[in-house]
Design a protein that fits this description.
4 helices, seven-stranded antiparallel sheet, alpha+beta, single chain
């Protein structure tokens, strides 16, 4: 079994940090960013403005036997710098995997975007056997960054 418990990708995107943060903090934009192909639509999702918020997504994937819903519990928020959430099947507590977005301005029209998929906090041994982490590959995360770059340039 691999000791790796996270995947991180990064890319400089030619857009101001506030424009990128605006897209990322709007759950209704996540479908167009999803390089994994799991997201189908937003069930409920106000703009992310603080830790503790929850947004719900309609999803689909063979790893869950088809259609399912997730609650995404916001665990990190710093305007124009950080967004993070832990995902769980709807109505349950998060089992420990987290999505983290870190933004670093590189000037007025350029931002270093770092996207991390981290499952280091998953402690349920049965879940670790059932779910083959990472569910989302490095290539899919790279695709997400490409989709984000396209979303902010349009």
């Amino acid at each position: 079994m691999s000791e790796t418990t996270s995947v991180t990708v990064e890319r400089v995107i030619d857009s101001p940090v506030n424009e990128i943060f605006d897209v990322l903090s709007n759950p209704h934009r996540h479908l167009e960013l999803d390089g994994s192909g799991f997201i189908r639509s937003v069930e409920h999702g106000d703009r992310i403005t603080e830790v503790g918020q929850v947004f719900t997504m309609n999803m689909e994937g063979a790893h869950m036997g088809g259609e399912y819903k997730t609650d995404n519990h916001v665990t990190g928020y710093a305007k124009d710098k950080l967004l993070a959430w832990q995902t769980a099947p709807v109505g349950t507590e998060p089992p420990g995997w987290e999505w983290v977005w870190e933004l670093e301005s590189q000037g007025p029209d350029s931002t270093l975007v770092r996207h991390t998929y981290d499952w280091s906090k998953v402690t349920d041994k049965d879940l670790l056997q059932k779910v083959k982490f990472p569910l989302v590959t490095e290539d899919e995360l790279e695709d997400t960054l490409g989709r984000l770059a396209a979303a902010v340039s349009s």
